[in-house]
Amino acid sequence: MLLKTRKYPKYLNESVISEISKKWFSVYNYIDLNELILTARKDFLEILSKINIPFAIITIILGVISFYIWNFLFLFLFLFIAYFVIFTIIFFKLLWRTKLFLYISEVVYTKTWIMISDDFLYYKKDQERLLNKLDKYELVFDEYLWKPSNLNEVISKKKKEILDWSLENAGKLTKSMWNIARNREWWQLAIAVLFSTFLYIASLYAFYYIGYFFSFLFSKIYLFILSIVISFKDKIELKIKNKTLVIDKKLSKMNLIYKVLKNKIDNFKAWEISNIWDFVEDKFWDFYNQMDLVLKDVKQLKNLIEKSKYKDVIDFDLFKKYLKKNFNAPVKDMISLLETYEKLLEKEIVELKKLNKNSKKQKLDINNTEILDKNLEQKEFVLNNQLEILRNNKKSLENSLLK
Fold first, then answer.
1. Sign of dihedral through CA atoms 60, 61, 66, 67?
2. Which CATH number is correct for 236-400, 1.20.58, 1.10.10, 3.30.70, 1.10.760?
3. Looking at residues 212-238, what average pLDDT do you find?
4. pLDDT attached to residue 205
């Protein structure tokens, strides 16, 4: 089998193979939102690389004419129309890429197939189709699966070729125009050319960074809109993939909640452990809700798999073993943590009983003693109530362990 060989294809590596051996899948974040945004900057620079020289010449000519007639309406109208067209092209390219991004941002691997976009592709049978797809996505996002992104390098190179090159040549032009300006007959022309050139370069830089801001804003809007649209058109493959990702994230969240609660209990220094009861109870219910959601998601995933044509190729038994291990581990940790807290509560109840007993023996001041007794009895009642709730919660966790 392909995954047992030591030499992996370029779209696989040792870490994903290791993860697949623990559960039936491995999830890789292929393209992230930042990389999606960067493609808009790359598009802007690519468009400029094709039109830079004629764009600059037209801008300078209109700038000179505007300078002489002292009416810059046509110049600014031209720049507005030019950049409007450029950003319209970028807008639609970003829209198309955002839709593609929603499909390929997360890639799911198993022992026999890879799920990218909305396709299940078998390593052996669909090798050529898979490689063609990956080559296509590399052209779109400048990143091959499992390899570092080349977007920053491409953008840096394009920026140097266009923006930095324009600025460098503007310096050379300034020297030439300075020599021409010494001639009284040509000084106005020299100033007009310099003004138009620097206006052009300033517009390049300004719209490059303004475009970055708007591409970030628009991408988030479209990401939200398209995710809603696609959610109504999900194929069974995408539903399996998304449900798998959701389960993985919720298991991670269970671990995170446990760690936060453990840190709180471990670092508690004050005498009255009941002071952090609200925090403990709140985090417990966060944990329990996540746990309940995981179990529901697993049931839904099983139903999805059983309804799909992939039910015979998905190793759900292996996933169940993984789930049992990774679900039970934080649950057992939480049970252990509640037992620690239980002992602290029991200890505090014992201390209260001693204090209450001593106060009744002394009875130095009847009024004060009665007030103290009531306060101690009230505290003891609250602690006993908390202890009962905690034990019920612990029991619920024990019953939830996967067998």
1. positive
2. 1.20.58
3. 67
4. 79
State the amino acid at position 45 in one-letter form: L
Residue 129: Cβ within 10 Å count:
12
**143, two tokens:** 């990143």
CB 106 within 8 A of CB 28: yes
253-260: long-range contacts, CB 8 A cutoff, minimum separation 24: 253/290, 254/287, 254/290, 254/291, 254/294, 254/327, 254/330, 254/331, 255/329, 255/330, 257/283, 257/286, 257/287, 257/290, 258/287, 258/330, 258/333, 258/334, 258/337
- Give the count of alpha carbons within 13 A of 108, CB side only: 21
Structure tokens at 39: 């493609």
pLDDT at 360 over 70: no
| Neighbour tally for 148: CB within 10 Å | 9
pLDDT in tens, 65-86: 887 788 878 888 988 898 899 8
Q: Are 104 and 95 in contact (CB under 8 A)?
A: no
CA end-to-end distance (rounded Å), the chain: 31
pLDDT of residue 19 exceeding 90, the answer is no
Domain spans of the chain?
Answer: 2-231, 236-400
Residue 273 has pLDDT above 50, yes or no: yes
Instruction: Answer yes or no: is pLDDT of 50 > 60.
Output: yes
In angstroms, what CA-CA distances link 33 with 101, 106, 230? Answer: 8, 11, 17
What is this structure's pTM?
A: 0.61
* 380 CB-contact burial (10 Å; exposed 0-12 / middle 13-18 / buried 19+): middle
Give 71's DSSP letter. -
In tens, the pLDDT along 311-330 reads 766 677 777 788 888 888 88
Tokens (6 digits) for 307 = 């309804």
